[in-house]
Amino acid sequence: MNPSGGLPWHFRAWRSKALWSPTCGQLAAWLAQLQPKSKQLILLGPSAGWMLPSAWLLRFDYIHAIDLDPLAHRLFARRHGAALKAGGVRWQYQSANALTELPRLLQAYPQACVFFDNVLGQLRFHAPKGQDPQLFAAQHLRQIKRHLQGREWGSVHDLLSGPAQGLAPGQDFPLACEAIAAESRPPAGDTQPDTAWLAAARPHGQWLDHLTDAVFPPSTPLQNMAWAFKPRYWHWLQAGWVGPDLT
Ligand SMILES: C[S@@+](CC[C@H](N)C(=O)[O-])C[C@H]1O[C@@H](n2cnc3c(N)ncnc32)[C@H](O)[C@@H]1O
Asked: Which of 1, 27, 68, 74 to mutate to test the pocket of ligand 1 (most atoms within 8 A of CB)?
């Protein structure tokens, strides 16, 4: 049983196309302004690439994708295969554990950049039974960051998630998300994200900490995004891209 992927994930993603589309648009805009130096990409946890734009994948000559979910390869091919083929991008999809495979992949593709596609915030759900999720996530993040020394890499992941009343009646979701993104950019020199934007989601109750606040080196420029995962359950996504000298 995959606690962060598999059939339930595919079904939700397929059904939530309209609800997720403003967030996918924000992610696409953020990805589009990145300038990865490498033409090879190691893509971790992309599932079917439900939230990824094919246009960004076309920047690369070669992509090695890896996900635990054995269904993901076929669905990824259905969503992105034609565009990748037309764009001359060679790609390979491996069904395996990205955490254990990462050192081998980094060795096999010494020039490749790495993108964690909404996977690091799921570490806590993959802690073996009886193991403290916080310790498990912290230990893996430390290891991952050690492996990535000197590499160009990025991630989009959950920071927090929880119940929300959603937008007030009449509020437009794409517009609200744009406003949220603008408000959530920390002022220059301030490393703490401004949480005022969360008010737009009208959160209530307890929110879950995805244990990702230490993913990026402190000076990484961050993009915060609101994601209405369900109408009444929102996620705070954070994205960042780390140059080889920043790691
Ligand atoms: C929240 S989903 C995000 C999927 C994807 N980014 C998308 O837009 O559809 C998390 C994905 O990470 C994968 N995953 C979680 N832990 C993994 C691991 N250790 N190795 C490889 N994939 C993993 C899951 O199988 C799932 O497909």
From this structure: 68
